[in-house]
Amino acid sequence: MNNSMISAMVSMNGIQQRLNMIADNMANVDTVGYKRKEADFQDTLNSVMQQSPEFQQPGRATPLGLNMGYGSRMAELSVNFTQGTLKETGNMTDLAIQGNAMFQVMTQEGEIGFTRAGNFNLQPNPEDPATSYLVTSLGNPVLNTDGEFIEVPSGSKLQIDGAGNIIAVDGTVETEVGRIGLVTPLRPDSLIQKDSNLFVLPPGEIEGVIIATSDLALEEQATIRQGVLENSNVDLANEMAEMMKVQRAYQLAARALTSSDTMMNLANNLRG
Fold first, then answer.
1. What's the pLDDT tens digit per position in 90-132?
2. Cβ proximity of 19 and 271 under 8 Å
3. How many CB atoms sit inside 10 A of residue 265's CB?
4. Where's the Flagellar hook protein FlgE/F/G-like D1 domain (predicted)?
């Protein structure tokens, strides 16, 4: 296989990965709290084909040696954690974070997860029908500042202030439930995306390095808004434009592969 075919094939593979990433962004344009994925590309290792000294003729300005590349590859896949637009829903269990923070939840595997998606609901406690848990749309329990499930009296109305304090109102009776636990991402690019809007710590990492506990009562870096949801930060128009550009690059790489195959076929026929 010649170098031109290798370069085209490697480039097509990287471009296909980028197309898959764009498709994922577009599919999640309406996903609450979704953060746009971005890709960085770099050239693969280059090699130099040495030339005989007789190629060094008078007047030649370039040094001996032919630089040969092998296409480009996707070097890094990152997540854009910029704030998405907010929309009011009026639902008492819908929460949005305005600022740099994330909700803490318990995943199905029993590990701590982090999300910006606040489309929560109340799920009855199987052990106590008189209470309910605040859970995500996937059924993952939302955690308070002590790392425990948020348990509220069934049938009560919830009042949640900007600091995350929860008050359950049942008629004239008000009960303090606790405070929603938040974390501040210190190195968000190090988080592992487990689901479209759910992140976890890398294996072996502990809190304090990648994320830190956020106390909204003491810090003004973030605010919780009740009855509001954060939209995806994906711009569909930009994704469509990017997809068209990447598809064009894929077509050019495929054409280069076809041309290389045609030239190799001609060379084989000449040898015959």
1. 999 999 999 999 999 999 888 999 999 999 999 999 888 899 9
2. no
3. 10
4. 96-167
